[in-house]
Amino acid sequence: MQKLLTRDQIQTLRKGTPEEKQSLLQSLPADTRDQVLTTVPQGMRQQLMAAVDPESRRKLMKANTPQQVVPSDLTEGKLYRAIYSNRQLEEQMVDFWFNHFNVYLEKGADRILTTSYEREAIRPRVFGKFRDLLEATATSPAMLFYLDNWESVSPDRAQQIPGRPYGPRARQLAQAKAKAKGKQARGLNENYARELMELHTLGVDGGYTQKDIIEVARCFTGWTIQQPNLGGDFTYNDRVHDKGEKIVLGVKISAGGGRNDAEKVLDILARHPNTARFISTKLAKKFVADDPPPALIDRMAKTFKDTDGDIRAVMTTMLESKEFFSAGAFRAKVKTPLEMIVSAVRATGAEVNYAMPLGNQIAELGQPLYRKVEPTGYSSANAEWVNSAALLARMNFALALADNKVPGVKVDTGAFLADPADAARQLLFGDATEQTIASINNALTQKQPTPGLVAGLVLGSPDFQRR
Amino acid sequence: MTLPQTTRRLFLKSSGLAMFGIGTAPAWLGRALYAADAPSPRKKILVAIFQRGAMDGLNVVVPFGERRYYSLRPNLAIPRPNRTEDSAIDLNGFFGLHPALSPLKSIYDEGKLAIIHAVGSPDPTRSHFDAQDYMESGTPGRKATSDGWLNRALASEKVISPVRAVSLGTGLPRALRGQNEAVAIANLNDFQIKDTRGADTFESMYQGTIDQVLNGAGRETFEAVKLMQSIQSQPYRPAGGVRYPNGKLGQSLMQIARLIKANVGLEVAFTDLGGWDTHVNEVAAKPTQGQLANLLTEFGGALAAFYRDLGDRMADVCVVSMSEFGRTAKENGSRGTDHGHANVMFALGGGVRGGKIHGDWPGLEQEQLYEQRDLQLTTDFRDVLGELVTRHLGNPELKTVFPDYGKPKFRGILSA
């Protein structure tokens, strides 16, 4: 750096305004600029990222933290859509279904598989038939890798090796051979089978047994990936498939069904009444209240069954219900961190030219995007989001946003109304509570008010945390 | 701050909102510092350090007495003790410390540092993701566990501090999630409303709101903030000119020391340090160079600084380190090691029976290795943590802390 720039220039990169940094970089010859971007020390990188144009930002990231490029594109894409899309319900649904069929971005190959998972498996089907969505996730490399089904093989796969005798003796031989090679003897992995029933379809008390889990896992043997670390596609490997007869939830799946065994499982699960109820309940908990009225769930579940799991129809039943517009559902939900931050950016009409700082804020509020380790996804319950560190982070974000202190985001503070009640109406799309207005008014008598401060206080108020 | 504690507690319970925050007496705040009726100011404290990425225990506490260690690792082995800084630091004639851990040697000699070798999780997984998850949930092999062992290790108490369970870093780690209130603090000095113009106003909004969920949590937040202010107002100077290393672990341990000395009711703390996944360039030209040496310099320096800084207060404190699994006994082709099985844990503190290597040594001969490639496990990590939870923190409910584990076998890591 010292060789490339004068001391004053380095100072500007360190301490200057975003505009100063940007114009300094623009003034440099192209090759000097590239060299600066590839050698900038870690401490200055994040600030610089927000200040420079997208092309320079990409160079900066590729040179210093190439492993961040794909996750960062994914996160930024999600935020731009959430903030600017005219189809807000669709974005909510993509978020809902991704979370329902959660995968974890940091688990090995999922670092590169998650982008296409959301784009190709989830997004096109969020209002479609549940069975199609289930199929898309079951065959997605991201899910096969995340829940380990790609390495699940028939425990009796010795029987598939041609020219070998069948039976327990052969199995012992195969295991001993694998052990001698220093490899773990592979076998059935129940992980996906369990989560498929517990989390994706029937629900935890959905009426399946440990025996059902094993039978479902047997049906899914051979559903795997070609070369997971190269982003390979789904493939069915008949060699490692368990060829025997299975019984899933009392339904017989005859021997020799091959790949179709698992398709039959998905049919059974997608059309099971407990699935209709489980999915309806989860949607109502997300969109209506933590404890939604049973009558509403009944009607949604009926629509689910009557329409063979048509998600659009189930949503229509919910959105047109009297319960949805009832007093009990009014502001019943605490916004998730994603909703809080996106709604604050939307309410202030902010212009975002680099969304990663917003993604980092969402993580600080407790919801790192694409990084929920557990297959459960994030809970939509209010309790999940209400804790000391997270609340403090919400208030700090609110003040920082309205004061133009969030890198990469620009708010027009001139557009805020100065009167607290007016400002609250402007940002909340409704009246604030008396307590909130009184607290702000009280603050204004003691301090130097700016429109940014008033707006920040509204965005950090209890009122804004609800939706 | 008008409701007396019992009233608010009852209110929370009866309205079914207790889950949103176990109430603390707002009134105790004013008298929290050094007051006689403050919540047990001299509680026992457990600090857990997670070394993410799978530390290479065999190069950290080196079995230099094993000839096979040297044949398995021709390029990576730490030489037998020879009084130079490029050799192992002899502990007992068989094991030695990596030279980068020299700051820990005198603590070992003082009997306050215990080492547990061939310890870890019995689950066979070699996935970082699964193994960390299992070690933090405290339930190897079980994915559905939603809370962490360190959260469950907190006993139920009548009066609790808003900062009884703290994680240093953003986001609450798996180990600390659960029913008991636990806060993540990236930096003590940042745990506040940064724009001071907003602080009082937010407090009054959240205290006055009829929104019961946000009201309860808001109160707790501002209680914790006030508690932190009393700490933040004084610049922190470690005792006796101790200097913490600049990295993440040093800074985290310094903040934990600061919380401990402030007597604000801390009971458990968690912090982590990543980068231990040394597949490549684990050891460079000399043993004191390379990825592992750099990490151990930070690790040893931070632990020693923490120990010296707390001084007599270490009598109440126990630090324990863990990593999700060990690494292959044999080196790989790129001056590194791959994912293995058993590992090393450290326990540091006033009550520790240190100056000793605990656990049984399984040996490194081919037939002694786990799956013929990794150090065999002879101590379950829950035996170590279980002893600390019961005998140090005083929580006997190990069935809750480590469900499905039966009866942990204490190894005598704490002195009687």
Brief write-up:
Chain A is built from 23 helices and six strands. Chain A has 467 residues and is mostly helical. Chain A is flat.
Could you describe the 3D structure shown?
The complex is a heterodimer of chains A (467) and B (416). Chain A has helices spanning 7-15, 18-27, 30-39, 42-51, 54-64, 69-84, 88-100, 110-122, 130-138, 141-146, 168-180, 191-200, 210-219, 260-270, 273-287, 294-306, 311-319, 337-348, 356-364, 388-402, 420-428, 434-446, 451-460, and strands spanning 223-225, 234-236, 246-248, 251-253, 351-352, 409-410. Chain A has 467 residues and is mainly alpha-helical. Chain A has 4 domains: 7-64, no CATH class; 73-270, no CATH class; 273-329; 337-465, no CATH class. In chain A, strands 1-2 form a two-stranded antiparallel ribbon. A two-stranded antiparallel sheet of chain A has the order 3-4. Chain A has a two-stranded antiparallel ribbon with strand order 5-6. Chain A is flat, with a radius of gyration of 27 Å. Residues 158-167 and 178-185 of chain A have low confidence and may be disordered. In chain B, a hairpin with a 5-residue loop joins β3 and β4 (96-97). Chain B has helices at 5-14, 57-60, 67-72, 102-109, 128-137, 149-152, 196-208, 212-232, 248-261, 291-310, 381-392, 398-401, and strands at residues 45-51, 61-62, 89-90, 96-97, 113-120, 165-168, 183-185, 268-273, 317-323, 343-349, 356-358, 379-380. Chain B is α/β, with parallel strands linked by helices and 416 residues long. Chain B has a single domain (45-191, 234-401), classed as Alkaline Phosphatase, subunit A. The chains are: A mainly alpha (467), B alpha/beta (416). At the A-B interface, α12, α20, α22 and α23 of A face β7, α7 and α8 of B.
